[in-house]
Amino acid sequence: MPRRRRRSRCHPGALPFPVMTADPVTAQQLSPGAEVPATVRASLSPSRAADFKTCPLLYRFRSIDRLPEQPTVEQARGTLVHAVLERLFDLSPAGRTPRAASDLVAPQWERLVAEQPELAALFTDDGEARSAFLRSAAGLLQGYFTVEDPRRLEPAERESLISAVVDEELLIRGYLDRLDVAPDGALRVVDYKTGGAPREAFEARALFQLKFYALVLWRTRGVVPRVLRLLYLKDAEVCDYTPDADELVRFERTVVALWRAIEAATAAQDFRPRPSRLCDWCSHQRLCPSFGGTPPPFPVGPNPADSLRDSRSRPVRPGTDE
Ligand code: SF4
């Protein structure tokens, strides 16, 4: 039986939570495909915002210097499992079986390699390592079936880009793994986690990401999601979190403050390292002063940080499971 985390570990507030309407004054709606309002000066995704919160220098390396990062096997496995789960729901409900998911693994890997040739460099041996990798992805998918029965689900959205304007000038946006809508209109945001890294090191980041999506949905649909769900496939574990409107108001202030801090750091060209346990997963240690390195010269020209350009085209999804 899958273990279901005690709600109190994720949620300090009262339950159940009533569906509420968003304040239409402080935020503008932005439907998919709509023009970005002229007032918008920047955009921010949960990943980049979390980078800055974790370590300002990491944010700089990724969003301003745009240093390449070779995907790790673990990240590639996360990307593959997400791709299979997305395609699984293209099948008829009765066809969404563990066997069908396993059968999708190899073709989806071939598709990803064709789209992201750097993934092919992960396996250059005689094929045994690649086969073991595909088996490990199939194993994670079996973990999925112990926590959910996809034959009984009909997601409203999968891998969808959602966005909203806050504070008139900031576009917040991100890709949902899955959105479920109940007959009464209640929303459930679902995020698949496949990583093998210590949970506690990344849980705060995962919850930050989900609150980010909850804020966008509230601002665009006028409904506070009833459930933010993390599905940990490796551990076959579910973590549900129930946000409330007051919390999302505070979270919106946090996001705007974070953006202003990013702008100030950019103007001052001052992004400091903040060492933590997460440094073990950082690709840029050799350039980091905390590890004896020296960052490259600060890029000149327009600030490319998380530019609006990114919000208009879907980026190749990096392995988003840390
Ligand atoms: S190694 Fe650590 S402190 Fe340095 S940039 Fe990476 S996350 Fe930041």
UniProtKB/TrEMBL annotation:
Top-level lineage group: Bacteria
One annotated GO molecular function: helicase activity
GO process annotations (BP): DNA repair
Pfam families with a match to the protein in the record: PDDEXK_1
Record has DNA repair as a keyword: yes
This protein's UniProt keywords: ATP-binding, DNA damage, DNA repair, Helicase, Hydrolase, Nucleotide-binding
InterPro entries: PDDEXK-like_dom_sf, PDDEXK_AddAB-type, Restrct_endonuc-II-like
The keyword DNA damage is assigned to this record: yes
Region Disordered: start-end pairs: 293-322
Biased composition (Basic and acidic residues): 307-322
All residue ranges annotated as the PD-(D/E)XK endonuclease-like domain in the record: 43-289
Protein name: PD-(D/E)XK endonuclease-like domain-containing protein
Origin species: Salinispora tropica (strain ATCC BAA-916 / DSM 44818 / JCM 13857 / NBRC 105044 / CNB-440)
